Amino acid sequence: KILEEVIRRRLLIDGDGTGDDRRINMLLKSFIKWINSSDVDNTLHERMLSQLAQCEFAQKKSRLVSNMSREELKSYENLSKEIEVQIEKAKEDIEKTKAELQDAKRVRKNRIEYDVLAKVINEQPDRLETHIKLETLQQELGALKKKSEQLEHKLEMRRKQFHVLISSIHSLQGMLDEGDEEIMDVSLENDTDMQISCDNS
Predict the structure, then answer these.
(1) Could you give the number of structural domains in the chain?
(2) Are residues 81 and 133 in the same domain?
(3) Of 10-24, 41-55, 149-163, which one has max mean pLDDT?
(4) Which of 27, 106, 114, 168 could join 51 via S-S bond, C-beta 3.0 to 4.6 A?
(5) Are 72 and 175 in contact (CB under 8 A)?
(6) Which residue range forms the structural domain that includes residue 47?
(7) Which residues form a coiled coil (predicted)?
(8) Which residues contact 147 (CB under 8 A, 6 or more apart)?
């Protein structure tokens, strides 16, 4: 009797409530009505069983959503850490590329100096020794030009890779923001659906 009185007072003060509280309060009301009824009412009994099943289902569903949210958050955190590692590696690659660019500039400067020297040699009388030196210089110029082209190509690839990495970071941030909003929407939608189900019962 004391327990029943406490339950009655709580229902009068709190009302039906919302979400899980509403389902539990409706179940308590049905239970009080059932134990106070002198008649055997199978309909009320079946309704209580249905309400109990709905409460259990809502609890399991909430737990499942919570577990999924934790797993998704953990996945995002791991991905974020991986991107941080990639960013650090990209910074190291940029510093390395800067050094390579300086080398390329030095190669270009040397090539200009060699071009000037080759022009001077070409203006000199045609001698065997001069011709040999000129061929040697041309070979060196070819090698320097090839190295310069390779360094410039590598620098361009580094720039493109860093641009792709920055774009991926922005995309991940957008996914994280959208994921948080979707989790909140799913949780609110689940509560609304269960509330409508209880009202219809």
Answers:
(1) 2
(2) no
(3) 149-163
(4) 27
(5) no
(6) 1-91
(7) 73-107, 134-161
(8) 104, 107
